[in-house]
Design brief:
The chain has about 350 residues and is mainly alpha-helical. It folds into 2 domains: about 210 residues, Up-down Bundle (Four Helix Bundle (Hemerythrin (Met), subunit A)), CATH 1.20.120; about 35 residues. Helix content is about 75%, strand content about 5%. The strands form 3 sheets. It has a two-stranded antiparallel sheet with strand order 1-2. It has a two-stranded antiparallel ribbon with strand order 3-4. Strands 5-6 form a two-stranded antiparallel sheet. Helix 3 packs antiparallel against helix 4 and helix 6 crosses helix 10. The longest helix is centred in the last third of the chain and has 36 residues. It starts with a helix and ends with a helix. About 10% of the residues have low confidence.
Length: about 350
């Protein structure tokens, strides 16, 4: 009867105080239970698998280095007006701690692959730690070191520009890490990067200020008014360019995976020995050597991009384009023949 059906539907749903309807039972079975009874099923929590202790500890060591660098930068900012030497020393400590975070970041992935303990949790944890050590900490370093070198007693616009560049760098680093997690496939060999890697960008920022500390101690007349005006323009511009390179499509080579993890020719080995000898000779001036190496690596991406662009516009680029078109035509002509051979083989097998 329609009346019985209406009564059964009114009993199967009961309104709550918020106006939402709660189904008290299964109408097909004829069994109804009160809301909040012991027969309600509980949601099962999805348990996380066991953690790999050594790679996770190395990744957390990266975060600890970033936090320690932030503490040193806070001490440096407090000492700028009172003790300039103390501020310079704290800035140096912060730069070295970011370098320690780079060491932990390089080791955790290698150890995870060697022990076959890679996973989604490790990748997400690594990105979060990188956001602290290579995103937030270098951004604060730009502000504090800029205050120490050229913003003391200067224009108000110096502080505003430094804050703007710091925020730009931090946002670019976080966006770069998020894009890396989304776009990188699991079977990537990590020989190339799209955009400047965040550890290399942080190392470049640290090397810039380490070079300025070296110049302040060894170059006569560095603290003059002309030098401060040059720093007011060059340092924010260079730091902003480093931040924007992280979110660019410029390709960079992973030096360790490209030249150390694979077999190389004798010429490459000889070049490596020469470079190692030069580094050993100049090791006492490491605060100047590190900026030269990092700026060279950061500049390699745009220079190679410009080289490919100019080569593509020239005669050699047209020849390469014609050769690529011929190769594609040959491959397209071979595909129908291969498919016909496959169809003939399957027909023969069926007969």
């Amino acid at each position: 009867m329609p009346e019985d059906r209406a009564s059964s539907e009114s009993h199967s749903h009961q309104p709550t105080a918020s106006g939402r309807l709660i189904q008290l039972g299964n109408p097909d079975s004829g069994v109804y239970a009160a809301a909040g009874s012991a027969t309600t099923t509980r949601r099962r929590r999805q348990r996380m698998p066991g953690l790999a202790m050594l790679p996770t500890a190395l990744t957390l060591g990266n975060a600890v280095c970033g936090v320690a660098a932030l503490i040193e930068l806070a001490k440096a900012f407090a000492a700028i007006g009172a003790n300039a030497n103390e501020a310079m020393l704290r800035i140096s400590y912060a730069a070295l701690l970011i370098g320690g975070g780079m060491l932990f970041d390089a080791l955790d992935g290698k150890v995870a692959r060697m022990t076959a303990t890679t996973g989604r949790f490790g990748a997400e944890l690594d990105s979060l730690c990188d956001a602290v050590t290579f995103g937030v900490t270098p951004a604060i370093l730009i502000r504090v070191a800029g205050e120490y070198f050229f913003a003391r007693g200067g224009f108000d616009i110096d502080g505003k520009i430094l804050w703007a560049v710091s925020g730009l760098y931090a946002c670019c680093a976080i966006l770069r890490l998020a894009r890396f997690n989304v776009e990188t496939p699991e079977d990537d060999d990590h020989t190339r990067f799209t955009g400047l890697p965040s550890p290399a960008a942080a190392a470049c920022i640290c090397s810039i200020f380490l070079g300025l500390i070296w110049a302040q101690s060894n170059v006569v007349g560095w603290d003059g008014e002309a030098g401060r005006w040059a720093l007011r323009v060059s340092v924010p511009l260079l730091c902003a360019c480093v931040g924007l390179l992280m979110v660019s499509r410029v390709r960079y080579v992973h030096l360790f995976n490209r030249f150390v993890s694979k077999r190389q020719s004798l010429r490459t080995m000889v070049m490596f020995v020469i470079i190692a000898a030069v580094v050993w000779i100049l090791i006492q001036h490491w605060m100047l050597l590190v900026p030269i190496v990092m700026i060279t690596y950061v500049s390699s991406g745009p220079l190679y991009f410009a080289y490919r662009f100019l080569r593509g516009r020239g005669l050699l680029g047209r020849r390469l384009a014609l050769a690529e078109r011929r190769r594609r035509r040959v491959e397209a002509a071979r595909q129908p023949a291969d498919k016909q051979g496959e169809h003939a083989g399957t027909a023969a097998d069926k007969s």
